[in-house]
Amino acid sequence: MSKLHRRPHGPPPPRPFAQLVRIEGDPAYRDRYFPGLSAAIAQRGHWRSAEVDALVRQLRSPPGELSDSRATNPPTARRNL
After folding, report:
1. Cys bridge to 65: 2, 14, 15, 61, which one at CB 3.0-4.6 A?
2. How far out from the chain centre does Cα 39 lie?
3. What is the pLDDT of residues 20-34, one digit of tens each?
C-alpha cells in the first residue's frame, strides 16, 4: 500500500469567484480597477426601471389604450450590457 502525498502547507488555493465577489461587494475596488463598470451598472438599472414602469403602466391601463401609443411611438433601440 502506498502512502498518499500531502500537499505542503501554504496558502489555500484561490476560490474560483473570489475576484467577482470583491468586484460586486467593494465599490472602491470596482471604481479603481473597472471604472466604466459602475456607470454601466447604473445605466442598466435605469433601463430596467424604465421597463418596469412601462409594464406597470401597461398593466394598469384599460385594454386597448396602449395599443395606439405603441404604433405612434416605436420602442428605441438600446444596448444590452
Report:
1. 61
2. 11
3. 888 888 889 888 888
Asked whether 66 and 58 are in contact (CB, 8 A), the reply is yes
Read out DSSP for 12-80?
PPPPTTHHHHHHHH-HHHHHHH-HHHHHHHHHHHHHHHHHHHHHHHHHHSPTTHHHHHHHHSPPPP---
CB 23 within 8 A of CB 37: yes
DSSP reduced 3-state for 6? coil
If you ran DSSP here, which 8-state letter would residue 2 be given? P
